[in-house]
């Protein structure tokens, strides 16, 4: 048994639906030869890789790598945060209904995370509740940046409250690293983990994790640089407390043990450090399918981690996900 909680998807039929009716929402499909992109207001996505929508290829890849179930998450460029609230809400509903349709084609192999309109905390809470109750989704994927603000903004309190009450997973994935900010694709190599680190630190120091202790949050890419720098965050908390406007009441090291982390770290030493910090109970298997920066042999990765007993390996490969997602 192996459950992959970090696997991206462009749901079946979504691009066609956007091409036919997306302009009323401010969304346009851009095609140039074999390349397809989506434009939200003034923001254009990266090219949509065909493998994001190819279900037979996805299932075949799962079979090759021993993955029993994928938890599909939206291709992070497709959040639609750049639309206004009404258009963003309508877009998310369209996206989620198509995602549910993809899951319905292989329900024994697939589950899904919703996308929600972070343009508004109440709107995001409403869509999350709908996706979980009506579409059978197991939570939501959100970006590290809302396009208008940050994850600890008070405007998003209704969303965090709803996620805690529902007990569903919130998977936080970087989306803010400007592709033109760094050369050499460092926006991915360095920018992505940096954005995750900042987002997690804001949830800590902004008091979100203390106000909503029931939240089930998973950080992509092993939490970015957070595990390695947790000592610095702890030192800052003990040195300054709530100076500088901080609202946390728990030490960052303690808060880090409440979070969950995927295994997409590309380093056995880094993964071992993460386990030593938070425990095997907090790790979830991930691949970042279908991208080259992913780990497409995740079971071998877990098998290579030194010092794990069989119970801990089972927790990481599937047990923790089964518990968190109610699978």
From TrEMBL:
The keyword Lyase applies. InterPro entries: ACMSD, Amidohydro-rel, Metal_Hydrolase. One of its GO terms (cellular component) is cytoplasm. Keywords: Lyase. GO terms for molecular function: carboxy-lyase activity; hydrolase activity. The keyword Secreted does not apply. Residues 3-327 form the Amidohydrolase-related domain. GO terms for biological process: secondary metabolic process. This is Aminocarboxymuconate-semialdehyde decarboxylase. It comes from Actinocrispum wychmicini.
